[in-house]
Amino acid sequence: MSESADHVSEGERVTARLREEILDGVRAPGSRLVERELAEGLAVSRVPVRDALKALAAEGLVTLRPRTWAVVREFSAKQSREVREAREALEKAVFPFAAERRTEEGLERLRTVLEREREAAQQGDGVVARRAAADFHEVVIELSDNEVLSEMGRLLGSRMRWSLSQHDDLLEIARGHEQLFAAIARQDVTGIGHLVVEHLRSGEEQARMRHRDPGGRQGT
Prior knowledge:
Helix content: over 70%
Strand order of the largest sheet: 1-3-2
Number of helices: 9
Shape: elongated
Radius of gyration: 18 Å
Structural class: mainly alpha
C-alpha cells in the first residue's frame, strides 16, 4: 500500500474516532481539541489529527480556532431548530419512498438494526441504542432509492446523528422505529407519513425536555 493511502486511512480513522466521541458525549460541547494532545492520545502524528479537525469542522461538529486547536461545537437554540427542520424535511420525503420501494434485503438490514437498538434500549445502553437509532434512519434513506435524497442525507450526516443523540427515552424511540418498520414492511405509503410526523414530534419534545434538564441523560 502506498504512503498516500496509508495517510488517508489513518486520517479517516482519527476522524471516525473523534466523531463518535463527540456524538456519544465523551467529548462535551465546548471542550478543547488540541492537536498535540490528541496525537499523543491516539498515537498518531499531528497531520491526520489536523485533517480530522478540518473534516469535523466541515461537518459542523467542531469550531476551528487559531493555530492548532478547536472546540466541540455548542449548538444554539436556533441552530438546533434548524437541524431539526432540515431533518424533518428530509425524512418526510424518504420514509414514504422507502415504504414504496423497499426490498426484502433492505427490510432484513433494517430489522437487524432495529433489533440491536431495541436490545440496547432495554439494557439501558444509551451509546449503542443511539448509534443504532441513527443507523435506522440511514438505512431508511438508502431504501428510498433516491440518489439526490441520499446526497442530502450524507450532507446532513453528522448533524443528523447529533440531533438523534439528544433523545433520552431510549425505549420510546425504539417503539417509534418499530411502528415505522412495520409500515415500511407492509408498504403503507399513506400511513407512514402520519407516523413520521408523530415520531418527529416525540423527538422534538424529548430534545426540549433534555435542554431544560441537561443532567437527565440516561445510559451514558
